[in-house]
C-alpha cells in the first residue's frame, strides 16, 4: 500500500474508531429508575409542534451533551445512557420528561427541574430525533 493510500484510510478510520470508543452502546438502564404510571401517561404538549425540537437541540447541547455526547450516544467514560438505543427510545414522552425533571443521583444524572417545563418538553422532542449513525455502505 502506498503512503498516500494509507493516509487516506487513516482519515476515514480515525473518526469511526473515535466514535466507537466514545459511544456507550453497552448502556444498561437502572431497573429501579422508573417513572410512576401518572408520569408515563403524561402527554407532550409540544407533540404537534416538531419545530420546537430545534430549541431542544440547543438545550441538549448546553445541558446534556457533556455526558451524553453531541449525538446522544452516551459516553463510556461518563457511564451515561446511549439515548439512541431502543430501550430509551421506546419509553413514553412522559417517562423521559420525568427522568429529565427528576434525574437519577444513583447514576450521576442531575435533575433539570430548574429548566422551565416547556424547555424540558423541547428536550424530549429533541431526544426523539436522535438516531444511531448508519455504517457506511
Question: How is this structure best summarized?
Answer:
The chain has helices at residues 3-22, 37-40, 53-63, 65-68, 86-89, 93-102, 117-129. It is an all-alpha fold. The longest helix is centred in the N-terminal third of the chain and has 20 residues, at 3-22.
> Any idea what the CATH superfamily is called?
Cytochrome c-like domain
**According to CATH, what is the topology?**
Cytochrome Bc1 Complex, Chain D, domain 2
Determine the structural class based on helices, strands and strand pairing.
Answer: mainly alpha
Indicate the multimeric state: single chain
Terminal CA distance reads 22 Å
Helix content: 40-55%
Number of domains: 1
CATH class: Mainly Alpha
Low-confidence stretches: 9-14, 16-21
The sequence of SSEs as H and E is: HHHHHHH
Largest sheet: none
Task: Give the overall form.
Answer: globular
Q: Give the name of the CATH architecture.
A: Orthogonal Bundle
Average predicted local confidence, pLDDT = 85
Number of strands: 0
Radius of gyration (CA) equals 17 Å
User: How large is the share of residues in beta strands?
Assistant: under 5%
